[in-house]
Amino acid sequence: MTSTNKYSEFIRNLHSPRAFLPEPMPVEDIKQVLEDAQSAPSNSNTQPWNVHVVGGEKLKELSAALIKEFDTNGLSPDFTTDYGEGIHPQRSQELAAKMYGLLGIKREDKESRVEFVRENLRFFGAPHAALLFIPPMGDRVRAAFDQGTYAENFLLSLEAHGYHGIPQGMISLIAPTAREFLGVDEDYKLVAAITFGTADESSPVFNTAPGRAPLSETVTVHGIEGLELD
Ligand SMILES: Cc1cc2nc3c(=O)[nH]c(=O)nc-3n(C[C@H](O)[C@H](O)[C@H](O)COP(=O)(O)O)c2cc1C
C-alpha cells in the first residue's frame, strides 16, 4: 500500500470528542462540509437525508427545550434503543465504563451520570449541530443506512477541514421536542444528530479510544485464498 496509507491513517484517527470550544465555524467551512456530505452514496440515489443545521442562540434554545423535556418526562425515541443481548450491549457497557472512568464518575453516582446525559443534550458545548431526519419511506431501514453514509462523509469532511464532530443518538431519544422546535413534520423520524465544531483537546473525553473488535469477530471470508483475519 502506498497512497492509501495516509488515507487509512486519516480514517482510523477519526474519533468522537465529547467536549467542544464555543467558537463557531466560518460559514464557508460549514457549507463545504455540507457539500461533501451531500456527495454521499445512497440507495438508487434517493438521498433520503433531511438535515436541519442549528447554531447560535437557536442551538442553546433547542438544548434548553430538550433538557426541560428530559427532566420532566424522560425519553421519547422514534426507534427502539434495544441493543439485544450478548456482545453488542457488552461493548456498549465497556464504552460507558471507560467514559465514566475518564470523567472520574463512579458507577453508583447516578446523579453525575444523569448530568452527563444533560451534557449530551447541551451538545457537549459545541457551536453547531445537524439533526438528521428520515423521510417517510417504507420501514426506513434503507434510508437509515443512507443516513450512515451521509454522516460518515460529514464527519470525515469536518476532520479534513480541521474540525471535529460526534454523532449523537442521544438527541434522537427526545425526538418530538426536536421536531416541534424545528417545525419538522411528524412523519420525519429522527435517528441521530451530528454535533460539530472545534473540539476541546484538553478534555479527558477528547478521545475515549474505546478500540475495536478484531476483524475475526465481525468478518467472515468466503473463497478468498490467503485472507486470514486476526
Ligand atoms: C449513530 C451513532 C450515535 C451515537 N450517539 C452517541 C451519543 O448519543 N452520545 C455519545 O456520547 N456518543 C455517541 N456516539 C459515539 C460512539 O459512542 C462512538 O462512535 C463509539 O464509541 C466509537 O468511539 P470513537 O468514535 O471515539 O472511535 C454515537 C455514534 C454513532 C455512530
UniProtKB/TrEMBL annotation:
Cofactor requirements of the protein: FMN
Listed InterPro entries: Nitroreductase, Nitroreductase-like
Keywords, comma-separated and alphabetical: Flavoprotein, FMN, Oxidoreductase
Keyword Chloroplast belongs to the record: no
Pfam families: Nitroreductase (PF00881)
Nitroreductase domain location: 12-197
PANTHER family found in the cross-reference section: NAD(P)H NITROREDUCTASE YDGI-RELATED, NITROREDUCTASE
Family of this protein: Belongs to the nitroreductase family.
Name recorded for this polypeptide: Nitroreductase
Organism, scientific name: Corynebacterium marquesiae
